TrEMBL record:
Gene behind the chain: nth
Residues that bind [4Fe-4S] cluster: C222, C229, C232, C238
Keyword annotations: 4Fe-4S, DNA damage, DNA repair, DNA-binding, Endonuclease, Glycosidase, Hydrolase, Iron, Iron-sulfur, Lyase, Metal-binding, Nuclease
Protein name, as recorded: Endonuclease III
Similarity comment: Belongs to the Nth/MutY family.
Top class in the EC scheme: lyase
Endpoints of the signal sequence: none
Gene Ontology molecular-function annotations: endonuclease activity
Amino acid sequence: MKQRKPAAPANVKTKAGGSLVAPLRPSTVQPIPDPVDPATLAEIFARLSAANPAPRSDLEYINPYTLLVAVVLSAQATDRSVNLATRDLFAKADHPAAMLALGEEVVRHHIRTIGLFNTKAKNVIALSRLLIADHGGEVPRERAHLEVLPGVGRKTASVVLNVAFGEPTIAVDTHIFRVSNRIPLAPGRTTDAVQAGLETVVPEPYRLNAHHWLILHGRYVCKARKPECWRCVIADLCRYPDKTPAPGPRS
Ligand code: SF4
């Protein structure tokens, strides 16, 4: 069966300030391919696990609060740009009361190199205030309580639950959406569909780290424009039809 190339997802801004992947336009809609079989899927995660047994987020953080702030800041920004801004910010404020004491203007100055910094500075102050008012200054472990915080949507809540609290959630960003549709692991037309699929099919021993393995694989190997299939540890298991051949010797 000839497999279609997954279309590049379009970012759609949410009320919470995050982004979703827009559904494909009707004119581009193709049948969704079948995912790889369970044995292949288990082998894929076994190899990703063997290649990187203890994956970590590229985002730098000190505690659940700084992780939450970093993930909020990372919407439509690179992890590298967020880390450059938060090193100084978190040295001054690594808990909500300290962030409120800094004030919105100082926060805005620290994060001015990140896209949407005006809105994000407001959200960081507002969510810090709510954490103090409703949760004693702690980051709640419940999804419902996380998702009502300013700037926090489903994806951000999933990342915090997974990384800070060890919940087996699989937040789907543009990298995971692309990888899941290419292989395909849990093909779908929206991030929510892919997340639901992954959280159903990924074998239990791999669920805790699946988010990290897939995001790192998408960011560094299965790149959007030109996946580096020649050095991919799961190339023989992946059904993507347009694999990139190994580069030839330089002339
Ligand atoms: S073989 Fe290529 S397309 Fe398939 S997962 Fe690896 S890098 Fe991505």
